[in-house]
Amino acid sequence: MIQEKQSNIYIIGAGFAGHEIAEEIKSKGILGKVVAFIDDDPEKIGTTINGIPVYGPISSIQSILAHTPADEALIAIPAAGSEQLRRIYTILQNTKLNRIRILPKLSQIIDGDAHLIQTREITAQDLLGRNQISICLKESLDYLRGRRVLITGAGGSIGSELARQLLSGGAERLYLFDHGENSVYEIEKELRILQEEGVGEKATIVPIIGEMQDAHYMNFIIRRLKADVIFHCAAYKHVPLLEENPIDAIKNNVFGTKNVVEAARANNVPRFVLVSTDKAVNPTSIYGASKSLAEEIVLGNNGGAGDFIVVRFGNVLGSRGSIVPLFTKQILKGGPVTITHPEATRFFMTIPEASSLVLKAGGVVEGGNVYILDMGEPLLIRDLAEQMIRFYGFTPEVEIPIRYIGLRPGEKVNERLWSEGEQLESTEHTGINRLERIPRFTETIDSVLEELHSICFFHPDTAGDYRNRLLLRERLQRYLPTIRKAQNEPIY
Questions:
Q1: What is the dihedral of CA 261, 172, 134, 159, to 10 degrees?
Q2: CB atoms within 10 A of CB 194
Q3: DSSP 252
Q4: Strands 120-121 and 99-102
Q5: Do domains 8-122 and 137-436 have the same CATH topology?
Q6: Which of 61, 97, 356, 467 has its CA 20 to 30 A from that of 344?
Q7: Among all residues, which ones are annotated catalytic?
Q8: Pick the CATH number of 137-436 from 3.40.50.970, 3.30.70.2750, 3.30.300.20, 3.40.50.720
Q9: Tens digits of per-residue pLDDT, 35-79?
Q10: Angle at 195 (CA atoms; ends 194, 198), nearest 5 degrees
Q11: Residues 140-156, mean pLDDT to the nearest whole number
């Protein structure tokens, strides 16, 4: 049997995370050999850690390679900001190293408990956007210790990241709820592997395939689960696709949310957190309208024993269907990279940062409120595209062209996190602000939903309403006048 040659590894960063990873590589033996730590700290350079030399600074890695060869680098600086990572990656990219891996941000590393299984190939989104807000996740998750936590949409980008971080939160049970068989399978398998490798605590993981559009089922399953906290992430999310399928957007995102909320309240769930979006603000799209209505459903169900809140934020980098994976595919096929509008901007946050702030918000807030995550300044989409092109080693417009294709149905040039006339009130918790809201409707949310019900669900007395797209948009516009009219929209 031919044994594959072991890699010689540089660990970039001689702090606690680097120590943990080096020890694990040594103990397993077959994963390679750490030949050096590389660090910028002059007090560490020239020392050894458990017999491994510390060289530096990082900018001198080319000369270090000349006397201590290596095959790959593993960046183990979980507190590093995007600017620092861009600098390190640029240096490493100009070497002959075969592989560059990274340990995730501090939001996924609790109490110095870093593991090799958490490392992955570095990607463009690691280097994009602003520096993340630093959060003590262990402290933030204390309210979940010994609790039963249900995540709807657990196979999605935010839901799955919540699940990863909750492994370290001391929850008694993690209920992974989704209607997608494969997505539940994938996140359950990943969490069990993480547990086998020593990540987090021994929460019981329970995969659940179910449909939130089934009200009777939702009441049944939430009664059985006896969850203490529900993080409601499940939703259809793709703006142009939902413009083509408006009835199903409302049926799932609005009436599905209603089913989950009512089941939670009927079964005295103490805490409910809706994950929402900036597209709910002055919505122009069906998706935005559906999330706006979902917010009202959640906020309208306070007053009982539980606290029901909304956490709203903008785009997340690297989520499925977002522009980062799209740009990646376009760059790797040689371009062009397509942008809707030259002045298009979006608020961006990484998936781990957004998830850790959602978890924190769930433990520090009072029911009946909307909380806005601090997204920083919006980023020009063209700047994002140019950064990604450079990440893959190309020159924007010279080697990879950029083309403008116009806004797609339902899209805006710029998004907002709150409406004009509303104000943010800072809280004592970094990165989380409370919204001083202006009521959206003069009617109750129930009366709004009643007008939409006959369109989404068949009733013999109102058979002409059923699946009528024009009627749906007309009724939505009555309550949300910013909704755009669709060009040449069919009745059904």
A1: -40
A2: 18
A3: I
A4: antiparallel
A5: yes
A6: 356
A7: 279
A8: 3.40.50.720
A9: 999 999 999 999 999 999 999 999 999 999 999 999 999 999 888
A10: 95
A11: 93
